[in-house]
Description:
The protein is α+β, with helices and mostly antiparallel strands and 878 residues long. It contains 28 helices and 33 strands. The model is unreliable at 240-251 and 853-878 (pLDDT under 50).
Amino acid sequence: MLPAFAPHPKLNRILGAINTNDYARLQDDLELVSLKAGQLIHEAEKSVEHIYFPINCIISLVFTTQNGGSAELAIIGKEGFVGIPVLLGDHTTTYQAIAQSSGEAYRLKAEVMQWELAQCGELQDVTLRYTQALMTQMAQSVICNRYHTVDQQLCRFLLLSLDRLPDNEIHLTHELIGNMLGVRREAVTEAAGKLQAAGLIKYSRGLIKVIDRPGLEAGACECYRAVKAEYDRLFQLGNPLRSRSHTRPKVSSVHQQAEERWRQGPPDSAPAPWHDAQSVHELQVHQIELEMHNETLRQAFQEADSLRDRYADIYDFAPVSYFTLNQQGVIIDLNLAGAILLGIKGSQRSRHSFISSVAPEDAPLFKAFMAKVLEATQKTVCEIDLKATSHRPPATVRIEAIPNENADECRMVVIDVTAERQAQKALQRREQYQRAVLDNFPFMVWLKDAESHFVAVNAPFAANFACPSAEALTGKTDFDIAPREQAERFRAADQAALSSGEPSTIEEQLSIGGELRWFEIYRSPVLLADQAIGTVGFCRDITLRHMTQQALLESEQRYRSLIEQLPVSIGIIQDGLLQYINPKSTELIGYSAADCCGKTFLPLVIATDRQRALDAYEKLAVGAALACTCEIRLESKSGQIIHCQLHISTVTWEGHNAALTVFEDVTAAKAMEMELRRLARIDPLTSLSSREHFDSHLKLAHARLKRTVNQSCAMVFFSLDHLSAINTALGPLARDAALALFSALLCREIRDIDIAGRIDDEKIAVLLPDSDRTAANVFVQRLRNKTAETSINIADQCIPITISVGISAIYATDATAGEGFKRADQALKQARIMGQNQIAIAALPDTAQARQPKTNQRVPAHAKQRKDEPGQAQSAGR
Length: 878
């Protein structure tokens, strides 16, 4: 959908850099289009049909590999155009052009662009210079991606995008930025988190707002500065202007020059008598003079043509609209501004009458105006409204018109005064609002000139001084409405404000209507062009406030004493500063009240919690809903981390809203909670994961398989042979010792990403991410060999340890994560049936066989067969 107000094509730097003649040829062929974020503009290996000149959007050139990876080659905004192959004589590209942000652009057909480039004019020169700048950007992108960190690459990307957008907001997700930079989304998230923690940006999902651009430029690498400098340098280059200056020749000098030319090469002629030769000489010199005059005339005609074109450009591209109408009101001629104003093409002007663009209610007025202009002998002015077009809303215009010499044409200058009229209406409404506001103020307001005469007062002022209306006081002074002594004080205060140029506020007891009351009086000088022209002031009754002030002071002292004696930590935060903490708070954090009060509270909060604390305070400051309690961590003066439960509420502190925070030290409770959670996740005997914890990781692994292509995961079940016999012969302690020994051996063999858990009294399971059944089998073989070499001495008996193993893979096609779990359990049962120290591999389910990849998967490092370990025979359950 196109915008209501079409942006001018010359907002693009390429179109804005060419001369008016070249631009005029392109104007009617430029088509305004709206681009959406993610829209594909040019496909790889496809013919380029249009050239795009961005106005307020960004277009990325992206190369995509065969395996789906992508990287951004360059970004293009209002400084350039998309369609370099057309400039270089080709029609296809190896990369894609994708709209990175929404906005508008003008597009031009490729064949039109090729014809313009063939003219070797300024368009070719500007586009070639831009191509050099674009090559610099591509080269720097390669260097940056090779040698600089993700943090620096992100800063460069944000700054380049910011240079091409109208504001400081970038609508991009971390995943899209990662695709553009050719890095993982997690790396972009981590880098963005660093920039936000440093106060350079602020981001939410899909929106990045740059807060500190100088800081962002300091964090960027030299690649951004090199690219920006190259763009600035190339666009500052201009075509040299060749001006010609000619002076009017004199007749004598022309004759002398003709004589000189005749002497340099007189024409060959037959000898003639003396008098005939003299005549021939004069004729030949006169012929040379005529040729010189003709040459001068040709130059003059050329200059006249150039000036005519220049004046035509001035007329056509003037910022105001020019029209020439015939007697019937048909448009004979108009300039570019006029065509834009009416929303018509200049080449189709004769098809339109001006009155068709006039608002219906103003059509009779315009007809009468036209008749008056054609009969007048001087300029005639009127003001009418124009109907809305596809590019603008209804407009108010001022028309100044005169007739031509024959009084059959009307030549008009049309000026758009819509903004001026809207401003006038807004001013009138504002004056009415101001008068309404003044009259509805619950206190007295006045405005005086430099001699203390009242210029304006509000209704409460007139009522307090028993005047019939506010207008009745205009031109009067304080001596007309107040006792002399009081009026003299008022006049002296006005003169003091005028001389000092500073506002003042005082509290004074005045006699109003025979009653003494306390008032707060504010006066301020009124300045115009740095010159004081009068005073403005207001006066409000503060008698009640004055009477209760002492009671408030006493109440404040009582409550302050109460707070300082409370056994809980209390702080008051106002405008981001810590205004008060009680003694219990200083005991908790180790700082004195003098060290904290009047300073920001953020240094007391550990770095990772500061943004959360700041967000909570900002919500409270604007009156947004906030939880009554929240958790935060503080850092004491000694460096100790203190876990606190915050209870937040809004109070009034010294007449302004503030946040009352009650700190409850829950450090010990937090430590106990963390220990309980740790114990809930592990088996106390084997220190492996509990069944519930293991099941949660199994579900996550299955969900990850469903989201990711070409990933694998294996499940292994272990059971110690003769464990029941050991329990029967030697007791539960011996059985527990054997389980603990095997668990310790297992923990040394698995990777950090593997999860081992105790399923029941005798079974132990291991989840192997990024491993298939073959890799799991290699891992089991190695573990089985080490287990077979291990024994345990209990009651002077050497007890060997062997294991039975069941292996299964987990597939994305499994309905639930428990299906892989069941297959591994069945394989373990099969291994037990085959005897001791056996391995059984579960068969592939039908759905997995159909999706089995043909190529061999990479074997993880933990599953590779070691050279010093011989392979073991195995049995596979089918």
